[in-house]
Amino acid sequence: MARTPARDTDTAGGERLLILSAGVGSGHNSAAAAVQQACGARSDIAEVQVLDVLKVSSVLYRALLAKGYFVLAKDLPWLVDWAYDASDPPFRRRGPIDPWTRANAVPVIDAIRQFRPTAIVCTHFLPAQLLASLLLRGVTDARTAVVTTDYDFQGLWLPGAFHALFVAREEGRMELLAHGLPLDRVAATGIPIAQQFNPAPLRDAGEPPMLLISAGATGGDYAVSVVRQTMHMQSPFTATVVCGRNDALRQRIERLVAPAGDRYRVLGFTSEMPQLMRRADLFVGKPGGLSASECMAAGLPMVLVNPIPGQEVRNGDYLLEQGAAVRCNSSSTIGWKIDEVLREPGRLERMQAAARGTGRPDAASDVLTGLLDGPTRPLVVTRAAQRTILAASEQRVVAADLTGPSSLVRLIDSIEDSTVALLQAEELGDLQKRYAASNGGLVLRRGRAPVSLHWEARRLLRAILRGDEALPVRAEGLGAPPA
């Protein structure tokens, strides 16, 4: 667990922030590090801890999740694509909290109890689903944020309880609003990336364009094909090739480009990627959520190669829509494709402008502001409401169009004016019988005989009331989805 001590004694009574990630690839941990960095600019945060939940799980569990995914992506990409689509509808799975996952979550729960956070940020869906369970069980009352790390929203990221959900782009926010999620709980902030405080280096306009060719953190062999094809390009250029932690790949590419003299610079793993991105003119590599976000923030357009089915393909689709990328579907045309970009007058400059317009360099600080300045009570989506949302998704209708007992209703905290629950209309009727107030609203109360309440209602009250004995709320139908 990485730990940042309190900045000074004046912040000793401030927020205690826990950032939970999972080391499946490097992107989730990079987003966590970006949020940690952004904490330094806030005087109301006294202490920060970052925990990769896989590092405290069993070796077998860690290997299956962290390594198994990439083995499948390489050898059985069709299976990864199918699994992504199968898990896309929200609440199709109740979250991956199966008995084995629950057993591996014990060290994480212990860390939460020991640190006693007042706020928690999750940059992977595994801890997000775990935190939903803990909020409903009353294990923690920390304000909890879910921060997605790809441009497209996937249903696995939607838990049954949270305080704020931050997505990468406006389309993802609109998708969640169509599912019935309230405006005050969902925001499109972009994907958190580390801030770069040094000014971007000035490039000599007379120099040839610089390509930044990335094999990813682990060093994908596809980089060999990319480099080989660039050697056939007609346009003038220089290239920096980053091979990640794959030393064999670096040596192989060094031998390949040796006849080209100093046109190519070959590196292994480097912490200087942000600086390289700001010096480059065109990025060639995979559209991972974090690498794509870093490119966009640097105004660096992308040539997309070898995307992982599912999230990376969808990331690429978004960048293509924005005019900030081109895609190569065949390794044999990569050089020609880059040549086409460089030869067409003004095309590279237009793509660079599109990338700058797409970038969200302040995402990490916006996440902290949205969480810490947002509602203090969680939003609870009851299991019945989850079934309604799933059914609406599968029927391809928006939740606001549903009628009858299974339609959705929101409970609004009358004090904070924030949405605290999303439930079925039938469930509302049960609550009205018990908690109806004279003004037509409801006053939720901690029951003297909680056993008489339905199990789901007890979970709802425990999460919403927290330490309070009563809370006045009002019920509202969804109405038309927000524009």
Automatic annotation (TrEMBL):
SUPFAM superfamilies: UDP-Glycosyltransferase/glycogen phosphorylase (SSF53756). One of its GO terms (molecular function) is hexosyltransferase activity. Keywords: Glycosyltransferase, Transferase. Signal peptide: none annotated. GO terms for biological process: glycolipid biosynthetic process. Pfam families: Glycos_transf_1, MGDG_synth. The keyword Secreted does not apply. Residues 238-356 form the Glycosyl transferase family domain. Gene3D superfamilies: Glycogen Phosphorylase B (3.40.50.2000). Belongs to the glycosyltransferase 28 family. This is Processive 1,2-diacylglycerol beta-glucosyltransferase.
